[in-house]
């Protein structure tokens, strides 16, 4: 289960990376490749997908229209989109499944609205209360993954890509600077291959001798 608060072009890359890491951490050395079934629930507080009237998305491996690998399922819930849909929908036509009831419960909390008393006797609430206790989570695995979830690189790359798409000058400046750095390193590599001295490469590229030796 993860909560995603900002949309970005690297969202699925990041999610697949963390999912793969969780799977590999489940396997012991020399163990059989008998993977457990994995359900990934991504709660999105932003609108990540284009469909304006669909807030719940199920993604899995499909081959020629049929489920190809049944052990990995991704579920995406766009909570703000659900709130918009639910707010404009007539009360008698609203969804009445446990998922919708749970999301309305979250909406009450987020908006600091009074929570109807009958919610606490609902089956979904008792199940939610048990799930949120984390009693079934293996402490070592949970702490290991929780400690790694703060990914500064993902945040930086997403911010740069968003800035580049919007034409923000800061994003362009960062892109230009990174491009120039890559060009300097590539030039230094080529000069090294041609036998040019490190001192001369440093003078031409602007890289330090330590950076050049590390190439």
Keywords:
215 residues, alpha/beta, 4 strands
List the helices and strands and how they pair.
Layout: E1 2-4, H1 11-26, E2 38-44, E3 56-63, E4 66-78, H2 79-88, H3 98-110, H4 123-131, H5 139-148, H6 152-166, H7 169-193, H8 198-205, H9 209-213
Parallel strand pairs: 1-2, 2-4
Antiparallel strand pairs: 3-4
Summarize the entry for a quick read.
This protein has 215 residues and is α/β, with parallel strands linked by helices.
Give the fraction of residues assigned to helices.
40-55%
Radius of gyration: 24 Å
Largest sheet: 4 strands, mixed
Mean pLDDT: 77
**Individual helix count:** 9
Global geometry:
elongated
Head-to-tail CA distance between termini:
39 Å
> What structural category do the secondary elements indicate?
alpha/beta
Q: What is the succession of H and E elements?
A: EHEEEHHHHHHHH
Strand order in the largest sheet: 1-2-4-3
> How large a portion of the residues is in β-strands, by DSSP E?
5-15%
Number of strands: 4
**Low-pLDDT ranges:** 134-139
**Looking at the chains present, what oligomeric state does this protein adopt?**
single chain
